[in-house]
Amino acid sequence: MxxxxxxxxxxxxxxxxxCDSDARAACQSNQVALETEAGTIIxxxxxxKAPASAGxxxxxxxxxxxxxxxxxxxxxxxxxxxxxxxxxxxxxLLDPSGAPGVAHESTKxxxxxxxxxxxxxxRSAPGTGSAAAFFISIGDQPGLDHGATRxxxxxxxxxxxxxxxxxxxxxxxHSVPAAQLGGTDYVKGxxxxxxxxxxKSRRIC
Length: 205
Hints:
Number of helices: 4
CATH topology: Cyclophilin
Structural class: alpha+beta
Radius of gyration: 18 Å
Shape: globular
Strand order of the largest sheet: 1-2-7-5-6-4-3-8
Helix content: 10-25%
Strand content: 25-35%
CATH superfamily: Cyclophilin-like
């Protein structure tokens, strides 16, 4: 007996979803493609050096939580309101509030550094950072490492990966004009009017 067309399509969709879920579970690659409106960014994360931070990022990828997320903040030498001056692009969930934090893995602990293309967790107090909000360094940014004074606690930020392809895309996003109004004094002039959306994220297997 043949299934009605609607039932057959529903079964096919369910089977495909199950296959996609199984494929994600089977893939253990540490390279991730972030497919954005501006192009694709390939990153590699380091769970061996920063297990909490990298693990949280891969969890967000595997759960498909970056679909509909985006890059929404650009920090440049002409709009930075902190010291020392840095350059970076920040992205993640468009509303990262309420996301549970992970243990802070400082660069002193991991041996990683905020070099050009470094992938790192945004945070306020140590332990509040999560993959809901991350940033990419533009150029080497030692002011974001452990011991620097960008954060009063001098704990720096938690590097957990690096862009391995697509820095041209990152720099394109970094050059997008930001709004001049809105936000706190610290981020004034850095928030994009229209975020550069992430269409999809996936492990590269």
